[in-house]
Amino acid sequence: MSTPMIPDELWRAYGARIVPLSKGETLFDQGTTASSFYQVKTGRVKMVSYNDQGREFVQGLFTDGQSFGEPPFFNDVPYPASAMAVVASDVWTCGRAAFLRLLAEHPAIHLELTKVLSGRLVYKSMMLAEIAVEEAEHRLATLIEYLRGTDPAGTTRAYRVPFTRQQLADMTGLRVETVVRSIKAMEQRGALEIEDGKIVWHGPEDAHTGTGR
To answer: How far apart, in whole angstroms, are the C-alpha atoms of residue 28 and residue 30?
Structure first.
């Protein structure tokens, strides 16, 4: 998924433009109407929603070559979450009419986009089940295994997780303190190790036996 789904030259041919975002800058707000299609050129963008207590829940994190916000765009409805740059980022934006024409004239890209969206539906279903019934370590192990499976860099056994503890907490609905404690327990069992502050994942074989929420 690190390879751009739609190349730059094709974006330009259909009148798309690049929106530069600084770290922490919002691209669109929850509740605004989805009228453009977005793909990260460089950087990292998160889609995030908030509950009544103001707690943040990350719906997804997207990096180079990944699109986001597609379901509201195709259904012409308001966004259920806001999009914000995690780091300084450049994002391709393309208007509705131009992007729909791009898909009609390039069926291979249309098919690739369908595969991407189908994969996200699988992920959402998987995480809903995890959040509903599973313990903290099981949630984390399932998420990391999913990330490894969708990342070309994750084909080897040792997978360097590209997210912080806070981001993992946001994606699993856990407290960051629970994530830190769970990671420490999995490290002690050999499921992962810490290198330069980053999680290096080896495998889930012994990662599902802990507790905690």
So the answer is: 7
Listed in sequence order, the residues at least 6 apart from 107 whose beta carbon sits closer than 8 Å to its beta carbon are none
Tell me how far apart the alpha carbons of residues 173 and 167 are, in angstroms, rounded to a whole number.
Answer: 10
Every domain of the chain and the residues it spans:
8-106, 134-201
Query: Cα dist. 49→53, 55, 57 in Å?
Result: 11, 8, 5
Quickly count: other Cβ atoms within 10 Å of residue 42's Cβ: 14
CB 132 within 8 A of CB 207: no
Whole-angstrom distance, CA of residue 157 vs CA of residue 174 = 26
Least confident of 9-13, 18-22, 90-94, 135-139: 135-139
- Reading the block at residue 138, the tokens are 């099981």
Which pLDDT tens digit goes with each residue over 91-136?
Answer: 999 999 999 999 999 999 999 898 888 888 877 777 776 766 678 8
C-alpha 13/C-alpha 138 separation (Å) is 45
Beta bridge partners of 56: 50
Q: Does domain 134-201 have CATH number 1.10.10.10?
A: yes
CATH no., domain 8-106: 2.60.120.10
Q: Please, where are the H alpha helices in 33-135?
A: 70-75, 96-105, 107-133
